[in-house]
TrEMBL record:
Record flagged with keyword Nucleus: yes
Organism: Pleuronectes platessa
GO cellular component, one term: cytosol
Keywords, alphabetical: DNA replication, DNA-binding, Nucleus
Record's subunit section: Component of the RMI complex, containing at least TOP3A, RMI1 and RMI2. The RMI complex interacts with BLM.
Source taxon at top rank: Eukaryota
Protein name, entry field: RecQ-mediated genome instability protein 2
Location within or outside the cell: Nucleus
Amino acid sequence: MYKPEKSSVERKRPPPVKVLSCQLRSADNQGDAGSGDSWLIRPGKGRTLPVSLVWMQGTVMRAQLDQNTVLLMDETGTFSVQGVNNIPKGKPCLSQGKYVMVMGVIQAASPEPVIRAVKMADLSEHATLHRRMWKLEVEELQQVLG
């Protein structure tokens, strides 16, 4: 069976890392500003974890579709998501109060994290469960990766 070769960009980008907004606020950019390829977070004492593509979850606080952005809040703070109008099936989950997942590339870390969206999904149907489990999922994945 024929398998097309992946481009070098597809091969280089690691899978998304689950993170909290507070971890991005203190992240260090290790590459070119805005490249999104070389950020270090600190998941624990003396540990660092390289990230570029992140997976975050939070509640929609404000959607500014005319500016192509949305403000989300997880249990550790707020973060902005850019490029939301370009996400297929993304607009239905951009109402205030919805609980959503966003996968994206880090654009900035402070004073407020900014993510350029690659994928979004509405998790509102089971929001209570997702909210309760999210921090545990983040911690578990970071322990495995670190």
